[in-house]
Amino acid sequence: MYLPPEILGHTASFLDPESLHTCILVCRQWRQFFTPCLWRTVDVSKQPWSRLFSKGNRILPTQERQDYIRDLVFQNGHHIRELAISADWLLWGSLAPYANRLMSLTILPLQPIWQSTISQAFDAQQAANPILTMIKNVVPKAVFGYHAEDICVRNLNMTRACWYMVLINRNLRQILFCRKACKSLVPFSFGLQDYAGIALASQSRNFLHSALMAHPHLARLEVGQYADDYLLTRLVYHIPSATSFTHAGAVLFDPKALPNPPHQQMVLRSLIFKQAINYEQFRWVIRSFPRLRQIVVLGPYNERLDDDFTVLPRLANSSMQTLSIARWALLCDAQVHFHSVRKLSVPGHIDDGHDDPSQILRWFPALEQYNFMRGGTLSNPANYHQPSHSNVDHVYRFRSLVVEPEASLQTVALFNIISRAPFLTRVELQVVCPAIVSVLANRCRSLEYVHFHLTQNCSSALAQILVNCPHLKVFTGRNHQVNAVDILRLPKWPCRNLQKLDIIVVNVPRHKSKQKRLLEKLERKLKLAKQNHLAKQNHLAREVIAQLEKELEVQLQMPRGPPLPRSQRCQRNVFAKLGRFTKLEEVDFRASVELNKSLKFVLESGLDELGSLNRLRRIAFEVKRRRFGMEEPAWLWNRWRMLENLEEAGVFCVEEGI
To answer: How buried is 633 (Cβ within 10 angstroms: 0-12 exposed, 13-18 middle, 19+ buried)?
Structure first.
């Protein structure tokens, strides 16, 4: 199949590696065109590369597998620009001499079996590897802290292979040694601890300087191997072009022993600490990198214990835009005020008495997004035991509040934050109580995106959000139960831009016919008789159950009269009010449990009132307990060209291309 190269190039930009791998099997022209696209990014943790580089259940890959991969890399290695691979395959596949045009190198962790097994077969196999001889000549052994009695030769060879890849690829923009991968690599040689944390040996310092200075375009770096402190404190000399740096090890350098004022690196934009950092080191970082836009501190913070601690002068920063910090106490001790931070993320624990959010959030006057990340905790401070509306002087001006799953927030603390954030436009919470829903409805009138889950009924507050928030576009979550009376009695809904809605209409008033009341009476008698049968287990109870089941079957087979107008008038009015959201694209009526007196999704009850929703793309119904008729699927097809999802019962979506 011949296609112009322009069409193939446009198609390749939309394909994932697995699809590209399939395309090269179509014909010779496609193989010639898609092979460079496929080999541009090689990540052995994803398909199809994980299948190609798989060892199966073996500790070592077979010699045939190694030869096969070596041949593939020899033919296509010049196409590779981004490589993510474990250190062992650098030797097995002999990628080092052939993948020499990389722009990104990521060293992935070894498989668990490698971390616990020292394979003599590997050392014997690689002893005669000519690639290993080449690596030894370029990366000297003295650079690393190798001791034969505690570190195997395999780890040293893999470490040297990684740095050999760094040396031969002069166009690298990114070097990442994953933290777990560093556990299988040999650290650099070091001596006593000095002002820059761990003092590297002279051979290690010279090697790092020559290896990194040979990459003029290097922008992102994560090395580990006890070299983080050394590189961070001398970043301006070794990597002047770095825009992102990750400190994976322990932060041990002493800021008091470094030059004051520090030598500033003006290019760095992102800095990540994966372990603890103290307030003095934090202040040194802010002063040394004045144009930082993002800083992440994931490690815990050990608070000061000295009694003679004096409050430091306030240090202002106007470049930072994103801040993620594990403990508020670090900011309190460091006394750094960020005037331009727009996104604040809290991945750690906040429960100290002096960690008053109302005080600390005042340090971020430009804050727009406030996130509680996975594992983040916010307890109620000591002076915030009750919800308060009186502290109107502490008004938060951020517009987004996001609480990720598994983040723990006490209700009172969350209530106080929301009650003082009237400018919120986006709220993404987890399970909340009715008090939180009420404060959202009454205080936050600018909401556009709302998502939360409920375990209790708060119908009036949910309906009030639709009344008080005219800019609302998305209102989703589980168990959003709203009484039909609340929908009908409330004023006209102003949120005409609503695009996505999850709602469960309950307590729909109905006038029951005589036949309906008789059926319900028989069902109650049958249920009670079965309970007595389980208790007594006698012949009389079985006869009663059989008689009731026979009567119920007769009533179900009897033809039903036409629906009563009084039973359908309320449902039709509810559907008509929902049909006024003319920009609605998705609506979900499903409930997690069976509910009585909910809407009947049939045309006779007013489902056709939703026909005014011209933009509707997806609708989900509750199909249990005969809530959905037989004519409705045909109506959905004729109105919107919707078909039922085979994987989800009751979910109808617009078929693309029809």
So the answer is: middle
Tokens of 633: 């699927």
Whole-number Å distance between alpha carbons of 136 and 127: 12
Mean pLDDT of 411-430: 89
Q: Please give the residue that has the higher pLDDT: either 563 or 360.
A: 360
Q: Each residue of 121-137: pLDDT tens digit?
A: 555 555 556 677 778 88
Domain 1-39, CATH among 1.20.1280, 2.60.40, 1.20.120, 1.10.3470: 1.20.1280
pLDDT in tens, 387-410: 444 444 567 888 999 988 877 777
C-alpha span between 453 and 628 (Å, rounded): 25
pLDDT, average across residues 39-43: 89
Q: How many CB atoms lie within 10 A of CB 27?
A: 13
Q: Which residues pair with 296 in a beta bridge?
A: 272, 324
Query: Could you please report the per-residue DSSP string of 277-288?
Result: --HHHHHHHHHH
From CA 632, how far away is CA 628, in angstroms rounded? Answer: 7
Instruction: Kindly report the number of other CB atoms within 10 A of residue 51's CB atom.
Output: 11
The separation between CA 174 and the C-alpha centre of its own chain, rounded to angstroms, equals 23
Averaged pLDDT, 60-68: 78
197 sits in the region (left: phi over 0; alpha: psi -120 to 50; else beta) called left
Model confidence at 172: pLDDT above 90:
yes
Rounded to an integer, what distance in angstroms lies between the CA atom of residue 482 and that of residue 529? 34
